[in-house]
Fold this protein.
Amino acid sequence: MAEQACIAKHLHHIAIAVKDIEDTVKFYQDTFGLGKIDIVEVPDQKVRAALAKIGGTELEFIQPTDPTTGVAQFIEKRGEGMHHICFEVDHLADTLKRLETKGTRLIDKTPRQGLAGTIAFIHPAATRGVLIELVDSHAKR
Amino acid sequence: MAEQACIAKHLHHIAIAVKDIEDTVKFYQDTFGLGKIDIVEVPDQKVRAALAKIGGTELEFIQPTDPTTGVAQFIEKRGEGMHHICFEVDHLADTLKRLETKGTRLIDKTPRQGLAGTIAFIHPAATRGVLIELVDSHAKR
C-alpha cells in the first residue's frame, strides 16, 4: 500500500444517539421524506438501531437500552446528537497496524465483529474530538 | 412535490469544529491519506475552513477566528468535534416553507448565501440534537 493511498474509501454512516428512536425515526421520516425505516434490536451492543439512507451514505440512529453503556453516558453528559462517523476501509487489520505504527491512539487495536462487517474505533483524542469507526464491510458475518 | 418525496438528496458535508486547522488537516492527511487539502479564509463567517473529500461527501474542518461566534462557543462549551451535517436539497426556499408548515423549528426561515450555494439551518432542538444545514448548490453565487 502506498504511503499516501486513501484509507477512507467512503463515509459509511453517521451515528446519532437518541433517547426515543421511534419518535426520532418518525420525525426524520416526516421531515425529510425518508421512506420506510426499520428499527432493530442489537442486544450485544445494548442499543436499538435504525438506518436511513441519504444518497450514498446512511444516518444511523442509536438508542441505548442500558444506562451503563458509552452511548447512554454520551447522552447523559452531552445530550442527544451526533455520536460517531464511520469510514469504509479495505483490509481493516492492516489499516489498524498502519495507524498504530503512526502513533494514532486506537480504541480497538484489532478488528471486532460489527453489524455491517468487521469494525474498530479510533480514539477521539486522536481525531480532534471525532469518534471515528472504521468498517470493512467485505468482512460481513 | 409529493408529501413523501425525499428532501435530503445527498449528504453534502460533515463539519468538524477545531482549534488548529493546520494541525488538524495534517493529521487527517497523514492518517487517512486524504491528499492535498486547501485552507481558506471565510471572513464573513469568521472561520478558516478546509474541505476533504471522502467518497461522495466531504469533511469540512472549521476553525473560528473570532471568540464570539457560535463555532467558538461550541468549542469552548463542548470541545472540538462534529459541529453540523449538511444535506443537499432542491428548491431550498420551498423546502423551508414546507418545514415551517410542519412546525419544524428553523434557524433560517429563508435561504441565505453560503460558500457552496444558498443555505439555511434547522434548529438542533427540532432534530434530536443535530445541527442540520440544508444547501441548494444549484444556487451558487
